[in-house]
Specification:
3-stranded mixed β-sheet; mainly alpha; two-stranded antiparallel ribbon; 316 residues
């Protein structure tokens, strides 16, 4: 555009935004093949071949993300993800990393010489895994072990120090982006309310698998678990809401007017499907990129949601 003297078209600008958003869904250490392949799928298949700007059914970013998840599964699901260490946030090197010590936190663990980042297991991976109780304790103690020994402090999932993809790790930044979209009229509060409420209910109700002494067991209603007067279940639900890609999808991707419902009640239903299905895929199926798969499924139902929630004109 600079060489030709033409201004950038809406389609070209949207393709640039799609590429940037796709990069936000990826780990910071992936090879160049992953963003290039994902961007090609998102722009060419998700946008251009689906009818162009304003005519696609499935969100291009979610489509590109799940495609590279299948194609580069090992690279996109590493055992540990790097997080810059304390005092290295602005100039740290992610390749100079070592595992964070057990029970240590990012904020309280100064790095040793030659280390500029920690490698951590993101909270969503712990939430997706089979839980294990303390020896000789009932299955419900598995939630206590999860909250006390495995998950980082809940605040870390909001400040971006718990590990995760580039644009997903910092929940506060994602919420800020969502508020900006709401101010510009793109994000509807019913969609956010439906997604958060449905995800919270699903996390509180859906069973989690526990590997006990007698084999695999199922723990129902984990959100109601209380141990020594401590609401372990509530902490479990809160972690589900802020870990992984759920916030990024709900606040940034789902409001896309091309792939979301037209009606206000449709936004509520759409958000509820998105939130509940994300937790279902995470807890029951254990599928990586759960929120992106859930968004594509909710996108598929948009025409049906519009038909069921449209206003009835008198006489029709």
């Amino acid at each position: 555009n600079t060489l030709s003297g033409r201004s950038r078209s809406w389609s070209e600008s949207h393709a640039l935004v799609v590429g940037i958003l796709l990069a936000c869904t990826l780990p910071p250490t992936v090879s160049w093949r992953v963003p290039v392949t994902g961007a090609l799928i998102a722009v060419l298949v998700g946008q251009a071949m689906s009818g162009g700007l304003g005519n696609y059914l499935w969100h291009p970013v979610a489509l590109g993300r799940v495609f590279v998840q299948v194609l580069y599964h090992e690279e996109l699901t590493p055992e540990r993800w790097p997080v810059l260490a304390r005092g290295r946030l602005l100039w740290g090197d992610l390749t100079m990393a070592e595992p964070l010590p057990p029970l240590a936190t990012w904020a309280s663990s100064p790095p040793p010489a030659g280390v500029e980042a920690w490698t951590v297991i993101p909270p969503v991976e712990h939430l997706r895994a089979v839980l294990a109780p303390e020896p000789g304790q009932p299955p419900g103690s598995a939630l206590v072990v999860l909250i006390r020994d495995l998950l980082p402090p809940w605040w870390d999932t909001l400040t971006g120090t718990a590990g995760g993809a580039i644009g997903e790790a910092c929940g506060l930044a994602v919420i800020g982006a969502g508020l900006l979209l709401a101010w510009r009229g793109f994000l509807r509060w019913r969609m956010v309310a439906g997604a958060v409420l449905a995800a919270g209910i699903a996390a509180a109700v859906l069973p989690v698998q526990v590997r006990g002494e007698a084999g695999m067991e199922v723990l129902w209603f984990p959100g109601l678990m209380v141990s020594d007067r401590l609401p372990a279940g509530a902490a479990f639900v809160a972690s589900h809401l802020t870990a992984g890609a759920l916030l990024f999808v709900v606040f940034v991707l789902a409001p896309d007017p091309s792939s979301s419902p037209l009606t206000s009640w449709g936004h509520l239903v759409f958000g509820a499907i998105l939130g509940a299905l994300t937790i279902l895929l995470r807890v029951v199926a254990g599928i990586p990129a759960d929120a992106y798969w859930a968004l594509l499924a909710a996108n598929t139902l948009v025409p049906l949601i519009d038909r069921l929630t449209r206003r009835r004109v008198l006489g029709t």
